[in-house]
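Residues determine shape. Next comes a sample protein:
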Amino acid sequence: METLEFQSEARQLLQLMIHSIYSNKDTFLRELVSNASDALDKLRLESFRDKDMQVDVDDLHIVIESDPAEHTLTVRDNGIGMTREDVVRLIGTIAKSGTAEFLKQLKEQQSGGTAATSDLIGQFGIGFYSSFMVADKVTLVTKYPHAEKGVRWESSGESTYTIDDVEDAPQGTSVTLHLKPSDDEDRLPDYTEPAKIREIVKRYSDFITWPVRLGGEEINSRKALWARPASEVTEEEYAEFYRHISHDWNAPLETIRMQAEGTFEYQALLFLPAQAPLDLFMRDAKRGVQLYVKRVFIMDDCAELMPEYLRFVKGVVDAADLSLNVSREILQQDRQIQLMRRRLVKKVLSSIKSLQSSRPEDYAKLWGEVGPALKEGLLSDHDNRDAILEVCSFASTHSTESLTTLAEYVGRMKDGQEHIYFMTGDSRLAVENSPHMEALRAKGFEVLILTDPIDEMWVDSVPAFDGKPLQSVAKGQVDLETDEEKSAAAAKAEEFADLLSWMGSSLEENVKEVRLSTRLTTSPACVVGDAHDITPTLEKMYKAMGQELPKIKRILELNPSHPLVEGLHKAFADGERESLADTAELVYGLALLAEGGELADPSRFVKLVADRVQRTF
């Protein structure tokens, strides 16, 4: 026998579970039955892949045994089991993403005295630890089909556990809980009572594919939830099924059912979350839905059925005509899978669209949770780009409180306005205070404020919405002028032509052109990109990822009505060419700083400013 210490995070979690007060301790049995069901699914799948595995898959089941005399409860399955290494890795440590956040939430709720801590159970696939809410000691015996010996694991939930080999362990896993004494004040019932066991299984695990037996009697209906008529399924049953497959303790925001008949039949039961998964933006995040064939579990997280930008969608797809012995490589080439994927995506997007129109508060909640992920589809899913654009919402200058859809923006466009104006930036404050916004604000044009990192990328790949081109107010030429104003601007440009040419030469290391601006009203200058240049923010993102880009020269625009520019023009006309080089550099530096840019040589800029200030005394 070997005694080992828990990983520090696992030890913290165990202590919190043992000593915290939970509103509903019944959830431990749901977690153990769910783990047993997963083990049976994995064995069935592995038996298809590994023809050398000598196992009986005709009687896969879960057994619950209670012993009132010994005050123990055992959950046993004849599933895949675990090796010794698996036991140490999966139970002795917590190698799941989000553990730190879980512990933080658990401690916060504990210190706050709330009774909702149990709502966190199940979120990170650590259901086994919930056993210590009701047990003083837990004994686990398990055997993997190819292993010569079984493994016994035991712990009282303190700092250590013991692990030992077992010669005659049956295939599968049994978890025996040495229960704490029942206590009505602590809401701790007698979990050896058959009636209590049936109640919990019926409430939480009635949809489990495999038979759950108690005293020789099967106590769950086993009927696949997606195969039952919608009129016979309650919202609570949907919620419990969603919790089972997603490890999210919240109820889903929306339930989506599909049934395709004809030459290719399948059923789908999908869910939109009320809260984004914690790993939504992690590189190794799981995505996809569960794939079944004729009620037989085939694959978890089937990415081939759901694109990455819809990775927050959870659910089940049950196909009637696929081979049971299917691999990811086969799925990638399968026409039926591709057809299902297209239909599932359209159904999800149409469901979000329906939420948008019929339940705007729920839509706003969903968008607030998963909007940035959904916008990734504007880059990757050209076939559904218009449908994605329709369900997107954006901040804009129209309101500081509510978001707007593109359709709503178009409905508010001014007479004669041809473009949908937008600006990307780090924050709303930075965008609203940008010099690029001055003329549009003065003339009453609405501007979309795009501050998600993904916005920097998709705006260049989406040319238009509803026939209206998208136009960045910080790139290219922004045409806001009347014919009369254009005529006056042309005259000004001719008047300033020599100054603009000289400044272009003086600043040629940093800018590709100097021209007069139509977008400035109060600032002296701004820096803009050409229509097809990448933005400075996107350039920073590439550099942060280790991708060095060639230097991108931008355009310096001057406001001819600003006193600084007027003074610069007069001095230039008076022949003060040589002394104005530093002034031109200062104007360029001020324009960079105004948009939140970075100076190439801050110390030189400070010296130029100090020299200018000194001359005023």
User: Anything to note?
Assistant: Residues 28 and 131 are 5 Å apart (CA to CA).
